[in-house]
Amino acid sequence: MYSYDVLSRRTRTTFPNGLEAASSYDQASQLLSLVHRLIALPSTIVARVNYTYDAVGNRTTLTDLAGEHRFTYDALNRLTGALHLVASGLVPETYAYDPVGNRLSSHLSATSTHDSANRLLEDATFTYTYDANG
After folding, report:
1. Is the pLDDT of residue 106 over 90?
2. How much is the pTM?
3. Fewer CB within a 10 Å sphere, N or C end of the chain?
4. Which runs of E-coded beta strand occur in the chain?
5. pLDDT tens readout for residues 37-79
6. Which are the contacts of 35, defined by CB distance < 8 A and separation ≥ 6?
7. Sequence ranges of the domains in the chain
8. Is the Cβ–Cβ distance between 100 and 118 less than 8 Å?
9. 100: which residues sit within 8 A by CB, 6+ positions away?
């Protein structure tokens, strides 16, 4: 079952397994929080996520039960970094882009390659091929 606010944003979801999810939003309709709890024990929070955003709508923080995650962007609003402050320690991520916006590197792989149509051809794990339809 779903409940919505006057702007048609989903504010509550009731699941058949006894969970309920409640959502809240800012004035730009960006998700601020999502809380999952047991219906039978409303004070028992199963999962909670809170978000913050910058002036142009990029998510700058995500806070969940595991810790805080911070995100940074370049002048073109592309993700350039993430910092995960979790119980196991500090986990950084970095990303780099070519002049046309293809992601060239990330913390997961050294590089990725693209063809002249800017389609991803290869990353650290996979090789990609395309048919005539893309």
Report:
1. no
2. 0.76
3. C
4. 2-4, 10-14, 19-25, 31-38, 45-53, 59-64, 67-73, 79-86, 89-94, 96-97, 103-105, 113-114, 120-122
5. 999 998 899 999 999 999 999 999 999 998 999 999 999 999 9
6. 21, 22, 45, 47, 48, 49
7. 1-52
8. yes
9. 118
* Rounded Cα distance, 79 and 20, in Å: 32
pLDDT of residue 110: 61
The residue to which tokens 């397994």 are assigned: 17
Closest listed residue to residue 37, CA positions, set 67, 14, 66, 11: 14
Tracing tokens 């090789």 back to the chain, one arrives at 127
> Which residues lie below 8 Å from residue 47, measured CB to CB, with a gap of 6+?
34, 35, 36, 64, 65
User: Tell me, what DSSP letter sits at residue 124?
Assistant: S
